[in-house]
Amino acid sequence: MLTRLETIVVDKPWGRTDIPSDFGDFGDRRVGEIWFSNPAGDDAAIMVKFLFTSERLSIQVHPDDRAAQAAGYPRGKEECWLVLDATPEAELGVGLTAATTREALHDAALDGSIVDMIDWRPARADDFVYNRAGTIHAIGPGLVVVEVQQNVDCTYRLYDYGRPRELHLEAGLAVAETAPRPDPRDGHVDAGDNRLLVDGPHFRLLHLSGPDAAAILPDGSGDFTFTPLSQGCTVDGESVRLGECVATDRADAIMLAPGARALLSWPA
After folding, report:
1. pTM over the 0.90 mark
2. 89 and 180 part of one domain
3. Catalytic amino acids?
């Protein structure tokens, strides 16, 4: 069975007015996020978002399951990004460049020098980054990113470039890693690859490309979230276009045309 998830369009001060037409016509709205609401609500394990950036997002960190549940959330938040488009100056901030202390991070968050402590990486189309809970991170301008994350609305902002939004220094620094934190899953994903990008601990994520994707689709029933990254995708014979996201209980009902690509995620 296929369920088309409700599309939620969110304006952001760092959003863009040049959203690709496949996602819809938003006029002069400064769209920052398009995300998809699962009818299961908080019981859904995974959320998918598309992000469109014209400025740097806040520097932030997420708690793990234990810390989040102690704070009243259903689960923590680990997430990953696949870059779909990037301007030449685009960058992603992932972790720190050097080990430090929570006290130094606190002072740097107040005076803005935390920006220079972040490991800013050049970002290119098809780059993949996994952000474990506790990794201080940020997204720079000039990017279109698809994000797959644990389904929870829990973000601790450490610095926000003077925007008038609440910071969460005490909670954020309590869960933040204070040293560089590279992840072995980070790297480049060729558009023609059929491969497992994430194998737990919270969710699994496949990158699918063309008809050969059928060979790596999971068998049996499950709680799958299917996200096209191009046209040419079908589930149970129904077309699912770029800009949509669907839930399905059968991954083996997915078919991709030559040159089409998509993501498939499900709980670990």
Report:
1. yes
2. yes
3. 157
